[in-house]
């Protein structure tokens, strides 16, 4: 949330408190804010304390998190909407405009700094849910279309922005977002680059003609 600097300041302090030498921040301005933590916290001392603790069991570390209770339809819908917002908000700028790191408004109108790492997580989550039957292709497409209208509204008046709705089939950005989800299981290691690059070339060719 690059616009909420006080929130970031309060949140990022947890990194050096956990023994982190550095932490990712979304802009040079926030990097300066984050640097204050390293004047306030003795990371080396914290690392020594952590190093003296009883080591965790390897089986505990390597135990994958699993779904222990059935999700409600409302929980599934909300999770799909949030991830669709993240995917569409980022992909439409990447594919249509060539912007690789974007400040994207989430579904609650809070600006977040998004990159391909976030895109990979969101697209793989929905791809996994499809594979394991937590959602359907029809539900995903329906939610993506509804969220596309919201993303278009959020970018209304932005120079160079190309709307996705209502001509979803002809929107290269929208189709790229669906590709990332529906081809997610087949994508090697879930990498997003092949689809993004292919669709970016398509968009450049289309808009150059």
TrEMBL record:
Which reaction equations make up its catalytic activity?
glyoxylate + acetyl-CoA + H2O = (S)-malate + CoA + H(+)
- Key words, A-Z: Cytoplasm, Glyoxylate bypass, Magnesium, Metal-binding, Oxidation, Transferase, Tricarboxylic acid cycle
Q: Which cofactor does it need?
A: Mg(2+)
Q: Which InterPro entries match?
A: Malate_synth_C_sf, Malate_synth_sf, Malate_synthase_TIM, Malate_synthG, MS_C, MS_N_TIM-barrel_dom
Q: Which GO terms describe its molecular function?
A: magnesium ion binding; malate synthase activity
Q: Which residues form the Malate synthase TIM barrel domain?
A: 5-59
Which GO CC terms are listed, alphabetically? cytosol
Q: GO biological process: any one?
A: glyoxylate catabolic process
Q: What sequence ranges are listed for the domain Malate synthase C-terminal?
A: 75-169
The cross-references to Pfam families, in alphabetical order and at most eight, read: MS_C, MS_TIM-barrel
| Protein name (Swiss-Prot/TrEMBL) | Malate synthase G
Please give the organism: Geodia barretti
